[in-house]
Design goal:
Blueprint: E1 8-12, E2 26-43, E3 54-72, H1 77-88, E4 94-103, E5 108-116, H2 129-138, E6 140-141, E7 144-145, H3 146-159, H4 165-179
Parallel strand pairs: 1-5
Antiparallel strand pairs: 1-3, 2-3, 2-4, 4-5, 6-7
């Protein structure tokens, strides 16, 4: 059964990559097959409000996602697991899941991550690029603006050698649209 191994890895693909908020023993670039990173979750708290929602990342089916994996000490797993669920499970927009990932050195490990719930009313994977840009520009919540979130994510991806052309296209379009106003 997945998640039963002694090694406890966390797969991060959004802000957890650059702000995990928990102690870890090892970090590695990692590949998750079968899912891709997407700005597909309406944010009503951290990057927007119900009146003006922003967008945050989710994992959607198909493709692959390059992110980061963090190895958590067994004795810290219960606390880390509780922290992650509290941080990520606002409005139940994600399905906490154990997935198989490949670490940069080729090891195949199981990792805990959060997959977007396709049928959730905050899931907007169907949004066009223009709709995503508009939500990135309008969203401001407890954690700051959705635009800052996308900028930070793109910058950190670049710093660790990960290219996400779709996310970068959304950022470029948002910056251009903001500059034209």
């Amino acid at each position: 059964m997945m998640g039963e191994t002694k090694e406890k890895w966390v797969f991060a693909y959004g802000s957890l990559m650059w702000h995990p908020g928990f102690e870890y023993l090892e970090v590695s670039q990692a590949r998750l097959s079968g899912y891709h990173r997407d700005l597909c979750i309406l944010s009503y708290v951290f990057r927007g409000t119900r009146a003006l929602p922003g967008l945050v990342m989710g994992l959607n089916p198909t493709g692959q996602c390059i992110g980061r994996a963090f190895l958590v000490a067994e004795e810290n797993w219960a606390e880390t697991h509780a922290y992650l669920d509290e941080r990520e499970m606002i409005n139940q927009v994600y399905e906490p899941s154990w997935v198989e990932i490949e670490l940069e050195d080729g090891r195949q490990v199981e990792a805990y991550t959060f997959i977007a719930v396709q049928g959730h009313d905050q899931h907007v994977g169907h949004f066009s690029l223009d709709e995503k840009v508009d939500h990135v520009l309008q969203g401001v919540g407890q954690g700051g603006s959705a635009l800052e979130y996308v900028q930070n994510t793109c910058r950190h991806l670049q710093e660790i050698g990960i290219t996400d052309s779709t996310l970068e296209a959304i950022l470029q379009a948002a910056v251009a649209k903001k500059g034209s106003k």
